[in-house]
């Protein structure tokens, strides 16, 4: 497993390499492609989620999509943080700052692991 990050008071894998290998049947090229797609998802969805003037349901859907993409590749810290942001948006109708900071941090750290893996 790749490095861990504190999320929800427990250690969560930034990138579960064993899960990713299983999900891609050990195909490194496929894993790299999926990681690249996830990296692009982070770029595309983060501003939508953070957009205070955006339509609430669109922001919820973006957080939900990011959560699913993260789970699909084993980026559990991002998935956990995106789930918390999604829940906060649903319950509060607004972005909870501490949950957004957690998600940003998890995305940044996970993307660093992805970049490191790509450079290896």
Task: Provide keyphrases for this structure.
120 residues, mainly alpha, 5 helices, 73% helix
General description of the model:
By secondary structure, the protein is mainly alpha-helical. It has one domain: Four Helix Bundle (Hemerythrin (Met), subunit A), CATH 1.20.120.160. Helix content is 73%, strand content 7%. The chain is built from five helices and two strands; from the N terminus they run E-E-H-H-H-H-H. It has helices spanning 17-23, 28-50, 56-73, 76-92, 97-119, and strands spanning 4-7, 10-13. It has a two-stranded antiparallel ribbon with strand order 1-2. A hairpin with a 2-residue loop joins strand 1 and strand 2. Helix 4 (76-92) packs antiparallel against helix 5 (97-119). The model is unreliable at 4-9 (pLDDT under 50).
Q: Which helices and strands, and how do they pair?
A:
Layout: E1 4-7, E2 10-13, H1 17-23, H2 28-50, H3 56-73, H4 76-92, H5 97-119
Helix pairs in contact: 2-3, 2-5, 3-4, 4-5
Briefly summarize what is shown.
By secondary structure, the protein is mainly α.
**Based on helices, strands and strand pairing, what is the structural class?**
mainly alpha
Looking at the structure, the CATH topology is: Four Helix Bundle (Hemerythrin (Met), subunit A)
Low-pLDDT parts are 4-9
* Widest sheet, order of strands: 1-2
Number of domains: 1
Q: How helical, in percent, are the residues?
A: over 70%
Distance N to C terminus: 16 Å
Number of helical segments with 4 or more residues: 5
Q: What is the number of E strands?
A: 2
Shape verdict: elongated
Mean pLDDT: 91
What's the name of the CATH homologous superfamily? HPT domain
């Amino acid at each position: 497993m790749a490095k861990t990050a504190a999320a929800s008071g427990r250690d969560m894998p930034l990138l579960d390499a064993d899960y990713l290998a299983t999900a891609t049947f050990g195909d490194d090229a496929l894993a790299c492609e999926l990681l690249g797609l996830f990296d692009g998802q982070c770029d595309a969805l983060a501003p939508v989620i953070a957009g205070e003037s955006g339509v609430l349901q669109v922001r919820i859907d973006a957080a939900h999509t990011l959560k699913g993409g993260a789970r699909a590749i084993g980026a559990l810290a991002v998935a956990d943080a995106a789930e918390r942001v999604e829940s906060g948006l649903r319950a509060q109708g607004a972005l909870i700052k501490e949950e957004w900071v957690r998600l940003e941090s998890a995305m940044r750290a996970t993307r660093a692991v992805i970049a490191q893996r790509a450079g290896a």
